[in-house]
Automatic annotation (TrEMBL):
<comment type="similarity">
    <text>Belongs to the short-chain dehydrogenases/reductases (SDR) family.</text>
</comment>
<dbReference type="InterPro" id="IPR002347">
    <property type="entry name" value="SDR_fam"/>
</dbReference>
<dbReference type="InterPro" id="IPR051911">
    <property type="entry name" value="SDR_oxidoreductase"/>
</dbReference>
<dbReference type="Pfam" id="PF00106">
    <property type="entry name" value="adh_short"/>
</dbReference>
<keyword id="KW-0560">Oxidoreductase</keyword>
<dbReference type="InterPro" id="IPR036291">
    <property type="entry name" value="NAD(P)-bd_dom_sf"/>
</dbReference>
<protein>
    <submittedName>
        <fullName>SDR family NAD(P)-dependent oxidoreductase</fullName>
    </submittedName>
</protein>
Amino acid sequence: MATSSPPVWLITGASRGLGLHWARAALSRGDRVAATARNSSSLDPLVGEFGDQVLPLAFDVADSAAVRQAVGETEHRFGGIDVLVNNAGHALRGAVEEVSEEQARAQFDVNFFGALWTARAVLPGMRARGHGRIIQVSSYGGLVAYPTMGLYHSSKWALESMSQALAAEVAHQGILVTLIEPLTFATGLGATAPAVDPMPEYEPVREALMAGMKDAPFVTGDAATTADALLAIVDAADPPLRVLFGTGGIEPLREEYDRRIAEFRAWDHIARLAQGVQE
């Protein structure tokens, strides 16, 4: 990514986990970062370490007006935004029936609508400058769906489809979109999620899921090691639309999509029947 001055990043959820490591990586190489969090004091360590390279911003990504204001402040301070990293999010655990209406809406407000509002807010400036990178932090759960994670996964599936459409819409404007799908990293993602009231009817499902995870090929990674991978994606001349962060995910993903195609084929007579084709 070529710019005439150090690139400017806007990273949501930059006070902990992946966002914090990514902000430090960008700042350490001389880039400038507008770092966001719900609580401005949680960004004090970044400001103390990197000074004026950091613009700390406290707002809720679900508030579209606050998002637009933060983007405006960043553009006024640094002259524009070259890289948006939509990282803010939380992972709500609970069976579909266990999740309350408020919890379901909050999951989508942060994971989907927060990314939607922020991406929309940076587009005019990126378009005017003829370049930009939008990094959407999805999840391996944006490609598959496991029981007791339905609302979290559905928010990421929504992010996936919106971002794929966005990538096709803005590519001719010099704006590139990449979906990052992390596997398992120690980030505290679920720490800020509200707890559901568990129903005993779903205990067998939870137990089966935990038992199955013991044989999963995923290895919990160190969030700090993802920083080099993120910089490589941001700097790539022709970045992918989707990229996994972490190992062990490709084969289970291949099996998942093979099962889908096999089921479509097995029930193709119904697809044909819906078209009025009698066998």
